[in-house]
Specification:
Rieske Iron-sulfur Protein; nine-stranded mixed β-sheet; single chain; FAD/NAD(P)-binding domain; 3 domains; eight-stranded mixed β-sheet; about 25% helix; D-Amino Acid Oxidase, Chain A, domain 2; alpha+beta
Length: about 500
């Protein structure tokens, strides 16, 4: 299974089912086998630690497998903003940490026996505005932070019609499917044990304890929650970051028709572009964007608009063979949360808040967490500390939390349809007295109904026409349409079944 019904461009090897966990305590238990979990596990194992990775489905089945895998230290939140929020020293540390993550991936790919499609490429930022002062300011701020950046009046080579741009040297791209496979292989060779289970609670202590949906309790000297968004915290991090859904389309282009580079614009929502290679179709153009807060859009034309944007600027694209979406977590101050559990759970560590740079954030998280678990000093620790105060990002924090509060008004809103009006493959939230009911009619005409109350903090879920799922507009939890099972946290329990008749 996956967190969405759409399929990304990355090809993954068929994996054998993971075994169930044993009851014996372990040294380090990593929950989640995405990029952060795998890099953490590998580095801890190479430190001589005994490591078990607990995964709900399969390595890479979560949001890591839905990335576009831009490897950049030219960060999405811009260095003009990062210097304001974290100071010049913080901006330099952010740049250095993401550069170190790219270097680590490059070195790992070189040692793996498969280059994993890793390529060093330039990155380019262009503007959607006639005012070029923002581009010039970003070039200066990025240079001050340590990047090799330059303002180009003539624009991107081969794409001059996009206008002036900022060039960032030594960015990179990678084939995420191949990288995930090699990371899993390296972990196993280093002695990491992979087991399957659905964690629903974490309790700190000596040892820390992890409760599974099956009722089994696992114990470990240290637990790392690397599940994209922590499922064990009710509030600690969820008020400091917001969940967004981002859309991607991809299709073949003639070799050489589009520059091999990472390309972004500064629109709202913004767009991001890169190339990859497919064994059957050759060079493939990947275009992402049309972001919106999770659960807060019923727009059915996100993919249509994204294709139109791509065709206008990259007319060489022959057709679109893929379309998918993924979850992005935006911290109020632009940087991930990596380190000791902010709720004070002893011997528990978390990583969350990818901020659109999930692969580099996840990789540097693995390096940082391995240092913290080994008692080594790390220069990035304070910058990414999960318990840091969001002070200079307070305006963004207030805006996002005011938005969350507004979503609870759904409980007094009318229902959207009657059950008998639902077509096959469609869902809607209905009203039954004081209750709201999430109703979905599957392809065979069967009706599936759930209490619409999100099991995290009680917001009413909404129907996603893009991914055919129930999405929470407050903190981004997502649930499968027909079963109500959790697709994305922070919810850690499925939607409650609605047993009363609707038709």
């Amino acid at each position: 299974m996956s967190t969405a019904i759409t399929h990304p461009v990355w090809r993954t090897a068929t994996r054998e089912p993971l075994p169930l966990p044993a009851s014996e305590p372990c040294d380090v238990l990593v929950i989640g086998a995405g990029i952060a979990g795998l890099v953490t596990a590998l580095n801890c194992a190479q430190d001589g630690r005994g490591v078990t990775v607990l995964e709900r489905e399969a390595p890479g089945a979560g949001e890591t497998g839905r990335t576009t895998a831009h490897l950049a230290n030219a960060l999405d939140d811009r260095y003009t903003a990062l210097a304001r929020l974290h100071g010049d020293d913080g901006a330099r540390l952010a740049a250095a940490s993401h550069a170190a993550a790219i270097d680590w991936i490059e070195g790992f790919a070189a040692r793996s026996g498969d280059d994993c499609g890793f390529r060093r490429v330039p990155g380019y930022l262009f503007t959607c505005s006639d005012d070029l002062r923002g581009l010039r300011a970003e070039a200066q701020a990025a240079t001050k932070a340590g990047l090799d950046a330059a303002y180009l009046e003539e624009g991107i080579p081969g794409l001059g019609t996009l206008g002036p741009a900022v060039r960032f040297a030594r960015q990179a791209r990678v084939d995420m499917g191949r990288l995930l496979s090699k990371l899993e292989e390296a972990c196993r060779q280093a002695g990491v044990r992979f087991v399957q289970g659905n964690a629903v609670a974490v309790r700190g202590g000596a040892p820390a304890r992890v409760e599974l949906a099956s009722g089994q309790v696992l114990q470990a000297n240290a637990v790392v929650v690397a599940t994209n968004v922590p499922f064990h915290e009710r509030v600690a991090l969820h008020t400091k970051q917001a969940a967004y859904r981002s859309y991607v389309v991809a299709g073949p282009v003639p070799a050489g028709a589009v520059p091999d580079a990472l390309i972004w614009d500064d629109g709202d929502p913004y767009h991001y572009v890169r190339l990859t290679e497919d064994p059957q179709l050759g060079t493939v153009l990947i275009v992402g964007g049309e972001d919106h807060k999770t659960g807060q859009s019923e727009d059915t034309e996100a993919y249509v608009r994204l294709q139109a944007w791509a065709r206008e600027r990259f007319p060489a694209v022959e057709r679109f063979a893929w379309g998918w979406s993924g979850q992005i977590l935006e911290p109020a101050d632009g940087l991930a949360f990596i380190g000791a559990d902010p709720g004070g759970e002893e011997n528990v560590y978390v990583v969350s808040g990818d901020s659109g740079n999930g692969i580099t954030h996840g990789t540097l998280a693995g390096l940082l967490l391995a240092d913290l678990l080994a008692g080594r000093q790390n220069p990035w620790a304070a910058l990414y500390a999960p318990d840091r105060k969001i002070l200079k990002g307070g305006r963004e924090w207030l805006r996002e939390n005011a938005n969350v509060a507004a979503q609870y008004r759904d409980w007094v809103a009318p229902g959207q349809a009657r059950a008998g009006e639902l077509a096959r493959g469609e869902g809607a939230v209905l009203r039954r007295g004081m209750h709201r009911v999430a109703a979905y009619r599957d392809g065979e005409g069967r009706l599936h109904a759930f209490n619409a109350r999100c099991t995290h903090l009680g917001c009413a879920v909404r129907w996603s026409p893009q991914e055919k799922s129930w999405d929470c507009p407050c903190h981004g939890s997502r649930f499968e349409a027909a079963s109500g099972r959790v697709l994305n946290g922070p919810a850690n329990a499925p939607l409650e079944a609605w047993d009363e008749p609707l038709e």
